[in-house]
Amino acid sequence: MQIPVDVKAWIRGVFRACNDRTSDALMNMPNTHEGALDLAFISEAARFSAPVRFPSDWIVRIDTHFLGGRRHFRNWEIADIGVLIVFRRGGKLLKSKIALLQSKRLYPAEHDYEEDEQEDYEIGFARLFRGDARFESITEPRVFAFVDGSRYQALKVGDGQYQAVREYESTHAIPVYYLLYHPGRMPYETRIPRVGSPNGEGATEIGARVLPAESIRQALSAQSNGYSPHYSDLKDLCPEPSGPSRSPPGWRIEEFIADLALDCKVGHVARKESDRGLSMVFNRRSGPISAAIAITFDAPPGAGGD
Length: 306
Fold this sequence. Notes:
Number of strands: 11
Oligomer: single chain
Distance between the termini: 5 Å
Radius of gyration: 20 Å
Strand content: 15-25%
């Protein structure tokens, strides 16, 4: 189905806003957790939830659902964000497709691995009460730099999640993509505590990028188990099909959705609601995702293509 230019441009703008939101969050606070970046991404997409009717009489609706950081599939999410794209004509379903995004953030060179663990959920809000021992670490100036040597520390060759993603793709023939969070530009450096209020960080040049899991596995095939890739390991990866920007690493999230997923060049296509791949991911509370975005396109009767 040929999607009108203005509809595509609007979708691109929605996900560009998600890109800007997460990139600015990482630039303002370099140790922002992956879960918080996922939530920022979903929250930004939710701002566009009101259905929009375009001059072409196409209607687009965006729905979001956030389940949180529960681990599902053999103790791991296969993807943090599942994107469901639904095409209808005059209210009748034509086809659906999914894109599974496993998010990982780039860590500043000076910062050790730190993400929410099981004990953080058990402690609950008490973890927000910081004692006097933490005061010095908050007030002492620190410089954080994102450079070629910075690592995606939560992405480890051969660990449980790495193997689970590989097995999931092999068993179900559904591709998984890594959503890699970066600052808006590389290299980037900032000092914390900041002086004054944070301001906008300018145009997003790098930001949220998407790479196929298979491309990452190939790039890291010579590395030993436990290895976490540097930015330099992935920064030149440019998988097929090439996106409009042709600026690696991978695809910008907005072009991945608007220019590749909508044109069925990436992801998993399903032509009926009973599709097993769709059902396994989206119809179970214990499905292998922690958040979902649904984009529904309703074309007017008589719109060409399928």
